[in-house]
């Protein structure tokens, strides 16, 4: 509860969380808690198992996704990571001289606008390593960038009936077996079907032997991209649009860094960082679910700001835009306790 308060209120330190909750101590019975001390928060950050918070996030994702199940082949999953700069005291995440960092790896549902899976690693870990441990959703469409360039992992997705949309590396050749026609005037410059190289590094056999498709596309900025997919039948424009949706996960990362607290960490230990990231994702889900329930405020940022301004008031979500509520008995008692004169 304390860390969630810190996320939603914008508190920058454990001491600020302690002071904020203490100032609202007469209201805390509504949520079944009391104001903790800074030392208690610090001990909990260091010692409470981060798995509890990660499991709670996973449970909430399952609850939030009820009624949102899509037909086979309709689910789109975006995979990406973002860097987290840590204090130089975070020895467990040492990256280079005087630099410590971690990564947040996410599977994101752009239709539901929420993460489905998240894991934290040190900055030294390559993106493909956590991706291989992520659960594969059979029949889903997976969209990702060059950080996940692994033929063996692609073969696993392909065998599970998943559609893959990613980018070719510049030096990856394609053994063309068929040229497809493209629409004149469209951003699609060419559409070809072929095979990936038979051998990988150290002369290992490529496990992805089925044909793939290469689309050369002109972006709005004039840059040319080589898009790879294992979908040989969908319109080229559909594949291009799927790859373009990858930027939605980038917007998600920007939102949680700007609105929630994963730029400044409340502890330096690995456990504390993992807990804070999990609680930030829980806060994101809480805000999204509350906004969906309110139905009156369309902007996620505006809703988050209103929640922050009214966090410790007992108000209906639909009334956040209305005039302030009358002063309650709890508020009067709190005011008297802070200023008896």
Task: Describe the 3D structure.
This protein has a domain at 162-235. Helices cover 37% and strands 20% of the residues. The protein contains 11 helices and 10 strands. Strands 1, 2, 3, 4, 5, 6, 7, 8, 9 and 10 form a 10-stranded mixed β-sheet that branches. A hairpin with a 5-residue loop joins strand 9 and strand 10 (224-229). The longest helix has 25 residues, at 270-294. The mean pLDDT is 87.
Brief summary of the model shown:
The protein is an alpha+beta fold and 341 residues long.
Alpha-carbon distance between the two ends: 32 Å
- Strand residue content: 15-25%
**Major β-sheet annotation:** 10 strands, mixed
Instruction: Please estimate the helix content.
Output: 25-40%
Q: What would you report as the Rg, rounded to the nearest angstrom? A: 24 Å
- Return residue spans where pLDDT drops below 50 for at least 5 consecutive residues: none
């Amino acid at each position: 509860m304390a860390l969630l308060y810190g996320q939603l209120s914008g508190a920058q330190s454990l001491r600020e969380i302690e002071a904020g909750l203490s100032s609202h101590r007469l209201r805390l019975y509504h949520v079944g808690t009391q104001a903790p001390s800074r030392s208690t928060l610090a001990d909990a950050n260091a010692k409470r198992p981060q798995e509890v918070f990660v499991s709670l996030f996973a449970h909430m994702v399952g609850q939030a996704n009820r009624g949102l199940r899509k037909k086979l082949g309709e689910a789109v999953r975006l995979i990406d990571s973002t860097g987290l700069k840590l204090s130089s005291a975070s020895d467990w995440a040492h990256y280079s001289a005087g630099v410590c960092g971690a990564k947040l790896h996410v599977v994101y549902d752009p239709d539901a606008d929420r993460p489905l899976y998240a894991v934290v690693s040190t900055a030294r870990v390559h993106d493909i390593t956590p991706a291989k441990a992520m659960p594969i959703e059979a029949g889903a469409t997976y969209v990702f960038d060059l950080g996940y360039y692994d033929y063996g992992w692609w073969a696993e997705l392909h065998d599970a009936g998943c559609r893959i949309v990613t980018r070719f590396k510049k030096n990856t050749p394609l053994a063309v077996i068929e040229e497809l026609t493209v629409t004149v005037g469209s951003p699609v410059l060419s559409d070809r079907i072929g095979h990936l190289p038979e051998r990988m590094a150290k002369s290992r056999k490529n496990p992805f032997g089925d044909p793939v498709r290469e689309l050369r596309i002109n972006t709005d900025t004039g840059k040319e991209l080589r898009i790879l997919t294992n979908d040989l039948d969908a319109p080229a424009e559909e594949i291009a649009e799927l790859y373009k949706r990858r930027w939605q996960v980038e917007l998600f990362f920007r939102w949680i860094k700007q609105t929630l607290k994963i730029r400044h960490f409340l502890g330096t230990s690995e456990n504390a960082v993992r807990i804070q990231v999990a609680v930030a994702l829980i806060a994101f889900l809480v805000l999204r679910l509350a906004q969906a329930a309110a139905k009156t405020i369309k902007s996620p940022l505006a809703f988050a700001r209103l929640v922050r301004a009214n966090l410790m008031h007992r108000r209906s979500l639909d009334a956040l835009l209305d005039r302030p509520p009358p002063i309650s008995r709890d508020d009067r008692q709190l005011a008297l306790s802070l200023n008896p004169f």
